[in-house]
Amino acid sequence: MRFLVAAMMNHRQEAAVFNVSTGQMSSILQLSQTLKLVAGSESAIRFEPARTGDIASSLGDPGKAVARFGLRAKVDLGLGLMLTLEALRREDAGYQLEPEPFLCEKVELDEL
Known about the structure:
Blueprint: H1 2-9, E1 26-27, H2 28-39, E2 57-58, H3 63-69, E3 71-73, H4 77-92, E4 104-106
Antiparallel strand pairs: 1-2, 3-4
Helix pairs in contact: 2-4
């Protein structure tokens, strides 16, 4: 959420894409298992043959977002998914979403 607010406050004309990530690799299987765990689901993970263009794992480079906004993600995949799910559940219950201050940290650009 803080990245979104920072992006809106630092609006520029060019269209830019930023990876808001920890910079740690995760696989589709790891994502599925983690989401299943934090959601408390007992659903089975179904495996299908890979399709052309499918990725087995993903690794985002947060360097561009850190350089532009001076923010760095602080939570791992599991905690991030858990907090996202909790926020969505609160929103469904009618609560206003607020940025969580501990999800990212301010980085001085000379630290990069």
